[in-house]
User: Fold this.
Amino acid sequence: MPPLFASGDAPSYERLMGRWSRRLAAPFLDFAAIGTPAAILDVGCGTGSLTLALAEAVPGAHITGIDVSPAFVDYARSRTSDRRLKFEQGDAVALPYADQAFDATLSLLVLNFIPAAPRAIREMVRVTRPGGVAAAAVWDFRGGLPHQRVFLDTAAAIDSRRGDELRTKVLATPLIGPGELAAAWREAGLRRVEQTELAIRLEFQSFADYWEPWTGGAGTVAPYIASLDQATKASIVDHLRRAYLAGGEDGPRSFAAIAWAVRGIAES
Assistant:
């Protein structure tokens, strides 16, 4: 089975998920309620959606974004000339920063993809100053992303072995179930822990706008699609197109999308 998440193609990621990360960033920051910190860390910054939103929301802050993918870091750097923003390549499970270096530490849509997620959370706590906020959000893959779930269920029905394996692997990622983020935050020693759900809508202009981002070089589905033979791929596309159209004409469709979000306060 190909890797769960491919992170080498930043423009593909922007079309697949960056556009939705930007939309989710605003309600996430409202919930995180970080106040006006001077120094903020964005863990798993990807192509910079949350970092750039933070720059607008907290004009006086110095913001560092870190991501394991050099391609994503380079893309994020290309999006801004703001000297308050810094993008660095590094691993979330071994953050290259001193203890208590940041007033707030955030992570958007990445923790469930980190194999050693508890270590990454402990690192977020370590670099957060006492009284500072640590907050994160992950998609509710099991029940909150119908546009992805229809793909996974279709693949599992048509490609019974590998499609089902992909669905199982995606839906078994950590932290995506009710209460899992909050439990991880408490386990890491954070206090005043709160978990909520954040809802946005994903708007696609056509079936092509829905399908083509899956086939790019980034995300959870792209490696699987790239591994398919032509007949299996054609069958999946046909069934997905019919599901998208649902008896209507091709054109815009809107899907709900729900993420779990958590915040907590570092110990004083």
The CA atoms of residues 142 and 171 lie 6 Å apart. The beta strands are 6-7, 39-43, 62-67, 85-89, 102-108, 128-139, 191-204, 218-219, 253-265. The chain has a mean pLDDT of 95. The chain is about 40% helix and 25% strand.
